[in-house]
Amino acid sequence: MTGLERRHVIEGFLVTLIGTVILILIPSQVNEIPGMETKMSPSFIPMLVGVSLIAVGVSFAVLSIVGRNKEKPVELEKEQLLRAVFTILLLVAYTFLFSKLGFLVTSGLFYGIFSFIFGARNLLKLFAGIVAVPVVIWFFFEIIFIIPLPHGLLY
Amino acid sequence: MVEHLLPALQLVFNPVNILIIAAGLFIGITIGAIPGLNVPMTVALLLPVTFSMHPVSGLSLLLGVYKGGTYGGSISAILINTPGAPAAAVTCLDGYPMAQQGKAGKALRASIYGSVIGEFIADLVLISIASQVAALALKFGPTEKFSLVLFALSTISVVSSRHKLKGIAAGLIGIFLHVVGSDPISGSSRFTLGIFNLFGGVPFLPLLIGLFAVSEFLIQIERKASAGKKDAVAFISERREDSYVSWKEFKENIKTILRSTLIGLGIGALPGSGSAISAFVSYGAARNSSRDPEKFGKGSLEGVFAAETGNNAVTGGALIPLLTLGIPGDAITAIMLGVFLVHGLIPGPELFTKSGNIVVAVFVVLIVANILHFVIASLGLRLFVRLISLSRSILFPTVILICVAGAFTVNSNIFDVYVAIVFGALGYLMKKFNFPVTSLLMGYILGPLLETSLVQTLILSDGSVLPIFTRPISLVFVLLTVFFILWSLLIQKKALDREEAANGT
Asked: What is the count of structural domains for chain B?
């Protein structure tokens, strides 16, 4: 089995795993109504989806093993994945601070961080963006559409 | 109806009303273009404003937002691969690759032409045969609806991915995501993991923002090192042939435009269906009848025409059941129903007999809105295209700020922002492993209709699935589903064989 075929088999296995997890979780995560017919049961569609995912995952893996899966490989670089994980952590931090400190201050700070990551090095433009972009978005949401944003401790 | 024409023209053709239509279009296009803001939310926010207006002025504003917003979603779909509305998701498939090839101007203009022509023809059909089409749609029972959703889902799964099984898997995961929350039949909770915020289901807008906007942001961050500044300038071309749709190209796509208009019109007339289904079905139909199906997904002009004409033609179709039967075609027309009701007007057959001037005025508004749509979208195009010439270091941080704010504003709840981040990570991984996120989204959107129509069918037939194959309209959709899947597999096999032959030589 080539590396590519192995990757496809793993993908098929993951799809099968998702279907299996759905089926395993049904008894604890679906509140059945006693005496309700199967076709009306709240677990009917989740069960159908779980079984279908297992069938699709197994088919995918089998097709990969017998060499019928001709899909080209996907480039996956460790450095790229790490950058994505780091960005997700930054977004979680932004969201956390956004609710505590308020939209304007937090957004200015994270605009600067993301802009720097994207390569902004002109300090004047960077500071102009840090001030202008959150204010424009705030004005658009709160004043034009009257949709409140969190004000937090600092606004 | 002719006797109502003069009073209707007087109602519509006054400076204030024309300005209201233009304002609605401008707001709609702007909202449609901004990820995180959507047309139903805007229409709902503007609804109280219309209460103090004449019903025709109120409807003018909302119809302007509806038409503009449906088109506006394509702008962000083409320029930053983030559909401003679910209906524009399919526009990403070819619009964004065109932008990457420096043909953003051409894709955006194709989007305007397709949208306006689709709307215009659909509105003419609405005016002429509204009652007949709506009567047919009314005959659709749960069995037919189930077959239609099945057909739509199969179309989506096979068109949005080179590997059909990955498309189907993504669609199934989308259906599962709809399951989270309360069961529509019994009301019992399902897969909420004990999290209170999930009792109402996975919130739609954060899911949309996460799958399309946050995941794209992660992809763009990742490309920083590998692509550098090259990507930013590749979007824009100074060459005229890359910025405009030539007459020759337009003529080559007339069939696609007309076909997509008919699809949009038909699907729009079905209650519960919407522009997203229409865009996908139109795209699938165009791909299957195209002389160059392998170009789809790689920057096909035909793909952009099909998707945009299909989704905008729905706006005319969705008004058919609303005006003639009082049944809204989608969420936006459901909100519009409020304008009628607050003014003591009840949409349906009686509206035609008792308030004929209002009905005719709405028809006139639709035609005027199409003309203004073309003017505003064309004149504003340079402004929108300029957005993409903004530095990535300004554009993408701005986009992520809007996304976070947009996700928060749905319920003024920080939980929704975390949901957007989770689906951003999921969307990123799906893109890395070639699982189509559009299939997941459509599974999620169509899941409720699929579940309720299937359960209703089974209840009505005492547990038998036979009606799906014995009821004529349902059978047509089932046969279309089978035909479409086989046809797509055949085309895929031919394309792969061609690729293999090309690699071998």
From this structure: 1
pLDDT in tens, B101-129: 888 888 989 999 999 999 999 999 888 87
User: B414: which chain A residues are within 8 Å (Cβ-Cβ)?
Assistant: 95, 98-99, 150
Q: How many CB atoms lie within 10 A of CB B463?
A: 12
Strands (E), B325-383: none
Give yes or no for a contact between B241 and B52, defined as CB atoms under 8 angstroms apart. Answer: no
The owner of tokens 């699929």 is B450
Cα angle B4, B9, B15 (rounded to 5 degrees) comes to: 155
Q: Would you call A32 an interface residue with chain B, using a CB distance cutoff of 8 Å?
A: yes
- Axis-axis angle for helices B414-432, B392-409 (nearest 10): 130
Return the exposure string of B404-430: e unless at least 16 CB atoms fall within 10 Å of the residue's CB, then b. bbbbbbbeebbbbbbbbbbbbbbbbeb
Q: Which residue of A has its CA nearest to B460?
A: A39
Chain B contact for A98 (CB, 8 A cutoff): yes
pLDDT of A95 > 80? The answer is: yes
Per-residue DSSP letters for B434-485?
T--HHHHHHHHHHHHHHHHHHHHHHHHTTT--HHHHHSHHHHHHHHHHHHHH
pLDDT band at A1; cut points 50, 70, 90: low
Contacts of B408 (CB under 8 A, 6+ apart): A98, A149, A150, B414, B416, B417
Q: How many Cβ atoms from other residues are within 10 Å of residue B284's Cβ?
A: 26
* Dist CA B492 CA B213 (whole Å): 29
User: In what helix (H) or strand (E) does residue B116 lie, and over which residues does it extend?
Assistant: helix B104-138
Closest among B322, B312, B306 to B272, alpha carbons compared? B322
User: Between chains, do A111 and B500 touch, taking CB under 8 Å as contact?
Assistant: no
Structural domain range at position B326: 2-504
Answer whether A24 touches B (CB < 8 Å): no
CA dist., res. A7 & res. A73, Å (int): 8
DSSP A114-126: HHHHTT---HHHH
CA distance B485 to B447: 20
Q: Could A87 and B218 be called an inter-chain contact, meaning their C-beta atoms sit closer than 8 Å? A: yes
User: What is chain B's percent helix, strand, coil content, to nearest 5?
Assistant: 80, 0, 20
Query: Given an 8 Å threshold on Cβ–Cβ distance, is A118 in contact with B190?
Result: no
Please judge whether B168 and A56 are an interchain contact, meaning their C-beta atoms are less than 8 angstroms apart. Answer: yes
Residue-wise DSSP of B274-315:
-HHHHHHHHHHHHHHH-S-GGGTTS--HHHHHHHHHHHHHHH
Whether the CB-CB separation of B401 and B34 falls below 8 Å is answered with no
Q: How deeply is B48 buried, as exposed, middle or buried, from its count of CB atoms within 10 A (0-12, 13-18, 19+)? A: exposed
Q: Looking at the complex, does the CB of residue A153 fall below 8 Å from at least one CB of chain B?
A: no
Q: pLDDT (tens digit, 9 = 90+) per residue, B127-138?
A: 887 666 555 656
Q: Is A39 on the interface with B (CB under 8 A)?
A: yes
CB spacing of A83 vs B175 below 8 angstroms: no
User: What number of H helices and E strands is found in chain A?
Assistant: 5, 0
Per-residue pLDDT of A101-119, as tens digits, reads 999 999 999 999 999 988 8
- Which of B84, B35, B166, B157 has its CA nearest to residue B430? B166
Residue B91 Cα distances to A119, B76, B406, angstroms: 29, 10, 22
Domain map of chain A by residue range?
Answer: 3-65, 78-144
Question: Which residues are bridge partners to B182 per DSSP?
Answer: B189
ipTM of the complex: 0.92
